[in-house]
Q: What sequence folds into this?
DNA sequence: ATGGCTAACATGGTTAGA
């Protein structure tokens, strides 16, 4: 891997405070140099900035009490940070954007949606429509753009361990997939699918019922890239190793590498 | 069968995740 490659990661840590040891262990071997986190579950005043700095990362964060929370971390400076979706008065801390080495990066924690037809499902679809409008504007301003995060949508049945059991459920429903397709229709590419991948590769496994042992998972953590950036993508993979460790997050990190000199 | 884990906030039991 080129020394000046941009290696972009995303990880729903399900509480940054609990997962700091996992982050440290992962960064000891992972080549990632820009990282979007979700579900930090900490207010900005309590963000473990010192520990993060000790791991060689700076950046910005946007959190709230108990729920949600995102952070955009990098070994290089993060410029022009924007928190939330401008013009959308969302009280939930789910989006942070910044520019690293000329690449615009948006880190998102898409609402879960709870159940098809619920109020939270309606919020999820509204939220995704707002995200699409935001991303359209950002793409016009930044040719090199990536959106990383926990999308809480499995794009295709190939991303679902048991498509029959999951059919029509939240995370795979037609309306959610249509909302994701509308985002992709801006020209974004799910870079994971640019490369040959192992069968049954997922990024989330329920804590219950031995789901990870059975590989009963979903691929819901994605890295989307604009055409000008995707052309430089040299690889994308799910790193399931941290999911095997003691007291893991239920999500694995996903990483994509870009050779910006090419 | 709506269970099964985990985390936050709290300190028993609810809310939420996906």
A:
């Amino acid at each position: 891997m080129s020394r000046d490659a941009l290696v972009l990661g995303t990880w729903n840590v399900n509480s940054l405070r609990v997962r700091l040891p996992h982050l440290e262990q992962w960064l000891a071997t992972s080549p990632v140099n820009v990282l979007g986190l979700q579900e930090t579950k900490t207010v900005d005043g309590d963000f473990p900035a010192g520990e993060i700095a000790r791991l060689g990362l700076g950046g910005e964060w946007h959190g709230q009490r108990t729920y949600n929370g995102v952070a955009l971390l990098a070994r290089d400076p993060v410029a022009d940070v924007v928190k939330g979706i401008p013009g959308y008065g969302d009280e939930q801390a789910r989006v942070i954007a910044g520019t690293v080495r000329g690449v615009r990066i948006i880190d998102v924690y898409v609402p879960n949606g709870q159940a098809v037809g619920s109020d939270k499902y309606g919020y999820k679809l509204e939220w995704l429509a707002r995200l699409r409008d935001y991303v359209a504007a950002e793409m016009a301003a930044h040719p090199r753009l990536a959106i990383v995060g926990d999308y809480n949508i499995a794009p295709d049945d190939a991303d679902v361990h048991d498509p029959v059991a999951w059919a029509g459920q939240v995370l795979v429903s037609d309306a959610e997939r249509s909302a994701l397709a509308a985002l992709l229709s801006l020209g974004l590419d799910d870079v994971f699918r640019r490369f040959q991948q192992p069968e049954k590769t997922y990024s989330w496994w329920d804590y219950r019922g031995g789901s990870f042992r059975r590989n009963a998972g979903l691929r819901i953590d994605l890295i989307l890239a604009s055409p000008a950036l995707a052309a430089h993508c040299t690889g994308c993979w799910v790193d399931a190793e941290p999911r095997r460790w003691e007291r893991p997050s239920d999500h694995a990190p996903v990483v994509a590498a870009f050779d910006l000199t090419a």
